[in-house]
Amino acid sequence: MADYRQIYAEDGSLEICWEDVFRAREKLQLPYMGNKKKFLWAFPPRLKAHGIEFDTILDAFCGSGAVTYMFKALGARVLANDFLTHAHLATIAFVENQTTRLSDEDKEFLLEHQNPGASKFIRRGYLAEDFRKEAGFSEEGLQFGFLTFKEALQFDNFRANVDDRFDIEVGQVRARSNLLPELQKFIDGNIPPEDHKRIKWATALANFNQMFLKFFSPGRDNYGGRAGARIDYRLKHAKSKGNWRYNADYSTEVNLRFAMDDWWKTLVRAQLPGRCRVSCMDIIALLQATSGFDCVYFDPPYGGAKKSTSDYAEHYRFCEAYVHGCEIEELPHIRTGAARFGSDQATYEKNFELMLESSVDIPIWLFSYNDRSWSGIEAIAEKIKRFKPRVDIDHLADHRYRCSKGANASDFRKEFLIVAR
Ligand SMILES: C[S@@+](CC[C@H](N)C(=O)[O-])C[C@H]1O[C@@H](n2cnc3c(N)ncnc32)[C@H](O)[C@@H]1O
Hints:
Number of strands: 7
Radius of gyration: 21 Å
Largest sheet: 7 strands, mixed
Order of helices and strands: HHHEHEHHHHHHHHHHEHEHHHHEHEE
Shape: globular
Low-confidence stretches: 1-16, 244-250, 404-409
Bound molecules: S-adenosylmethionine
Strand order of the largest sheet: 3-2-1-4-5-7-6
């Protein structure tokens, strides 16, 4: 574990190299609901103030991997987990990845190879109305019509190229990520060699996903709180106007070649002192199958009145479907995982308790919640006290969530860090 005194100067100011580390992470857009990238800087001094030290930590709900990145920057061995495949891929690409980059040949193939084996999954489910009839697609299987024909064609082609280029497919990648003996070895300090094929596959799709969230989801007017904007809204949105990435003949149309050329990224240059491994499991199953962490960080969906901000599978339905090549209804593991913290308050509470019961062997617990979570912060702390004698509530930051409407003061939420041991 890095010594916090090396990270913070005696006067408490950030030393320049750590500022760079956090800035690199901030520059990487990774738009993700509930991500903590804007206040990563707030964690280390609070951890130091509480005297928290660890060599191994579980980032139980890693989402975009922002906090995972911070733990790795602090020198820890961090196992990051998220039940959504597309989220776990981002963390493989941008945090687990130590040295792997896509070559120019890889990029050329992914964008230019015309794949005769490409499925029509995206054209069938996501073509905008104007293009459906013309292209001969019926309403059957339609999810959201937000793509032009050319975009949908490029999406289908790119997806097939990713599997072909790296000769691996989604089931194998998930199985590899969730290999329990390997995960346990990692926790015990035995770091496996980098699996370039799995990392390249993840990097291609993670970069595509970032591009999708940036260019296809401008603003908030998406499908009932889901990522991916209506085509007419995208056309009108200020962010899309005059954007050189769009073809002139249909002003909303994204040219994948230009969009991706601007995108390909990794963070391998950061060379952080810690190590990371990513798994893709329901958190309770993972906690019950592994042991030996010094600390666990829980940043679950916050619950609360707005269901749409807790149901990540529904919100990122397109991203998940794109990676799997099928709708989330066809994925039983999504149903199990999403039901835990994405439904009513009673179910949330039951699963919260089960999660704590499954973590009793881990000495230190850290939690993120804000002042509008499924229960009041004091009440959440009381529940944790049933398992750990010492529970402290700390104020981490005031944060304005992008998904909140309007610009009034109530958009600012108090972010708390709960420390239990
Ligand atoms: C608040 S977000 C985490 C944000 C993350 N710390 C970041 O900075 O980006 C909560 C995450 O929990 C994941 N999640 C929800 N239910 C889960 C479950 N049963 N098991 C594992 N992950 C789950 C969601 O997919 C989502 O990515």
